[in-house]
Amino acid sequence: MKTLTLSAILLGLTLASPSQAENPADLNDLQIAHVAYIADNIDIRYAHLALAMTSNKEVRGFAETMIRDHEAVNQAALDLLAKLGASPEDNFLSQSLNEGAEVIIDKLSGLRGVEFDLAYAENELAYHKAVNGLIGDAFIPNIENAEVKALFEQGHKIFLRHEQHAANMVKALK
Amino acid sequence: MSKPLNRRCFLAYATGLPVAWATMSQGGLPDARTHVVEIVDLAFNPPILNVSIGDTVKWVNHDLSPHTATASDDSWDTQELVKGQSGEIEITAATFPRYFCAYHPSMEGEFVISSG
Fold this sequence. Notes:
With 174 residues, chain A is mainly α.
């Protein structure tokens, strides 16, 4: 069943559009793969910003893990797409994610010290919550290719752990 | 690929002989064993391992994300293990018995060490 999730709202998508094409649950496998690739890259960008901005050991460690894990997941996705002879397809959700990321990076770039650390950690928690909801509720139930679905299930487990890690980081920084 | 690959293990891998056999033939404890900890879905399996001094513990990473097995007191470390890689340590009387993944600190494991 195709459903629009709360995650879509958290990711800044509008529910007002009457277009079926703007329901995340209606994306095809190649569009979903594109969204996931973009979402991974956005978190990698946040992490590189954090490494440039903070000297907090825990925050730096978290950011390094985000780069390591999201790059690994993206490489696995690219390998799978190459094996399937398919290319990811750009779509409204990928574009929306990128636009949202620009705003967040602008905001984070203006912060310093513990203010940056806490804002980065809170954004990581909110971002992983939203993306995990999207993956679990809208993507995994609707992916048709078994290998793509299995990859998303593996990625989802990793990202749920990131969410838990981010929650612990927020708690420690407050 | 396995790391670190010490001389004893290299001999075992190069000849295709089991590591436990190599341990015995190289003058190790006669009952020394190799225990395998599988890293799957961001967890060490089994999380608690009964080992004896002289045994080898080998971690095999099956996850997409890289992991480590790192002593909680930092006294030993497998270094980074990417998917498909393995790393191992030999248990001694001084081996610190608790460990975690340096990249995912909520992943934890433990040895129960007996003198054999």
